[in-house]
Amino acid sequence: MATAATSNAAPARVAETLFRRDMLGPTFGNLASSITGLLLMEKLACEYLLPHTAHQSALWEATLGRPLFTILAGLVVGSAAFWGVGSLMMIPACLHVRKWKIQVNKHMDFKALLSAMPLIVFNHLLGVLIYSVVMVSLLPDSSFDWKNLPSTSTLARDVFVWVSLNEVCFYGVHRFFHENKRAYAAIHKLHHTWTAPVSLVAIYCHPLEHAVANVGPLLVGPMLCQSHAACLAVFLFLGLLHTLAVHSGYWICDDNGMHDEHHRKFNVNFGVLGVMDYVFGTYRLPEGATTHFPFQKSD
Length: 299
Prior knowledge:
mainly alpha, 12 helices
């Protein structure tokens, strides 16, 4: 009898229990793990990857000039992440795999994806151009010293600022695009034509939105810190992997399904990590989040 009473009193959705009992777990815990994980990846890159590319980077920069070198490097890094990893993340959706799918009753529309491709390609190139112009224009010469990489303490400071400001700025801009009816209708509505997104439609949006909401917030922290260009490239590469994963439609995402739920409901989860959503009461997880990410036991 006690079991039955408990069952009847329980919320209809597992996620609703989370909102009441353990908001800090998936939000501030996600912030801490994101900062720690990014710092670890940056440190590994500085120790084992970037020193081996320093000589070649300096040589190509001297040969091509900094602007052209930055654009070409951005194309290589961005294409490896977006088209390389993004295409791999598309495979389950293309094969209509139901296991691990967040919205199990939704399937990818191949015709819609094909029609979206010209804008996706354009936005990819636009993003590379914006990143390159901003980096060359606003970063000092020391940021392009390929043989002098930042210390661990500098990286820790930079990573904290990057992640925190990206969360704040993206939340603010993204929520504005939803709450301002004219901005939503003219700009952001296009992205939400995909209520069950797949990885490559992460940048299927109005070019103005891509510049202001997707690209801009990622650059605020690095420009403020005057960060090293190579470390910024690592950050942008991992940022692309994140946005591809959270748009994949599968539980390979690193946000507990937050952003997929945003595409399903529109009026929740405006941020990246959930911290700003927690503060302003817009945080929601999709049903089944605790099944696939068991950070706490469900009732």
